[in-house]
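writing this on my phone so excuse typos. first protein, seq and then structure
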Amino acid sequence: MRVRNIQRHGDEEIELQMTSMIDVVFLLLIFFILTFKIVTPEGDFNVKMPLAAPSEGKPEENQFPPIVIHLKAGPSGVLTSIATNEKKLKDFQELHNFLLDIVNDNGGPGSPGAEATEVELDCSPDLHFEYVIDAITAVSGFVSEEDGKIKTMIEKIKFSPPRG
């Protein structure tokens, strides 16, 4: 067996070619910037939670009173009734259609009247969370059948203060 005699000189240093590495990094950076797609986060709702102690003050003159939606639950937490100040509704689709009529009277989804409309959810304390999400879905908007785009109905959603 033959052992190679490799001579190493202590003065020699191996140089890395940094120019090509920097080029590759910039190419990757440009690739990721150009292929990045901004997507609206799912479930991003403009929801206002009630304060611990409601502040008293004079409301704005242009502010419409909120549409109060009452969600009642049975002893097991299952939804038993949906009602507004004006009428009792049988399901979330009827709630959606009721609010769509109100928004359309204000000029349609995305109009200044629709932006000023506010919904207050008055939920039973033992109501299951899935029904609250269904109510928010019925209130917040829908997917248009014509072009498949999301149409925003009512953005201002708040919860009523807890009863105590």
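second protein below, same order as before
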Amino acid sequence: MWTKSYTIVTKEVTKEQIWKLFTDINSWPVWNNQIELAKLEGKFEAGNHYLIQPKNGRIVKVTLLKVEENKHCLEFGTFPLAKMYYDHLIEETADGLKITNTIYVKGILSFLWVQLVVKKIAAEMPAHVQQQIKVASKL
């Protein structure tokens, strides 16, 4: 299994602000220039899914496995012979709001998908979280 995490602590945004931005999937392309399309049909809840298309990429179905409002979201997507989990955790601390994103990849061809796709996603996590904080702080 391959894993990569990114954590930041900030006082610039509340858990409600970051959650509101994060759960408004259809608006992701507005603040994330790496996304061509993001579409959630229905509610942001466990068992539902959304479609996402990175710039110059294919449309991918992502399933919401676990959703705890203002706290936690675990997502799941598949590649041929590999599975990717994207875990988002929001915690209030004495130092500010702690935001942790972790990507896990499992499966026989996980090494291939990590090299082809997932390392780039992981490398962009810090910039994406910073952009989320910037945009969410204005909500």
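The radius of gyration is 15 Å. thats all i got for now
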